[in-house]
Amino acid sequence: QVQLVESGGGLVQPGGSLRLSCAASGSIFRIYVMGWYRQAPGTQRELVARITTIAGTNYADSVKGRFTISRDNAKKMVYLQMSSLKPEDTAVYYCNAENTLTKNTYWGQGTQVTVSS
Questions:
Q1: 87 band by pLDDT with thresholds 50, 70 and 90
Q2: CB burial class (10 A; 0-12, 13-18, 19+) of residue 72?
Q3: Contact yes or no for 71/34 (Cβ under 8 A)
Q4: Is the pLDDT assigned to residue 27 strictly greater than 90?
Q5: DSSP code of 27?
Q6: pLDDT of 22 strictly over 80
Q7: Angstrom distance (rounded) from CA 66 to CA 13
Q8: Region 75-85: what's the mean pLDDT?
Q9: Which 3 state secondary structure label does DSSP give 6?
Q10: Residue range 52-76, pLDDT digits in tens
Q11: 102 φ/ψ angles, rounded to the nearest 5 degrees
Q12: From the CB of residue 3, how many other CB atoms can be counted at a distance below 10 Å?
């Protein structure tokens, strides 16, 4: 089992940047595929970015070229660097972990990102 705690959200102006962090604890981090999802009011939770156990990445089309996901297995951390933020990026961002052996998934509590002038 793994516990996830996100941080780094906040209010930023359009065009600005933020870096989200997700701290994992409680299990062998390197066997987890890690992802960032987001959910805006009235919408379904959607995948933003995902990073595999060997650091392969994929992104939602809406964030390609603006967001970068990375992981540090030694520190049990995953990051989401967000640049050129737009108002439509406003959402609660959730960290997700999927155990590649058991397929169990885990969620953090979420961190609010608001892009507004």
A1: very high
A2: exposed
A3: yes
A4: no
A5: S
A6: yes
A7: 15
A8: 97
A9: strand
A10: 999 999 999 999 999 999 999 999 9
A11: -100, -15
A12: 12
Candidates 83, 79, 81, 63; CA nearest to 71 is: 79
Average pLDDT over the chain reads 95
Q: Which tokens is 17 given?
A: 């940047």
Give residue 30's pLDDT band: very low, low, confident or very high (50, 70, 90): confident
Q: 81 is written with which tokens?
A: 């660097």
Q: Is 47 within 8 Å of 60 (Cβ atoms)?
A: yes
AA letter at 29: F
DSSP 54: T
DSSP β-bridge partners for residue 46: 38
Q: Which of 37, 46, 6, 39 is nearest to 24 (CA)?
A: 6
Q: Which residues contact 111 (CB under 8 A, 6 or more apart)?
A: 6, 7, 8, 9, 20, 92, 93
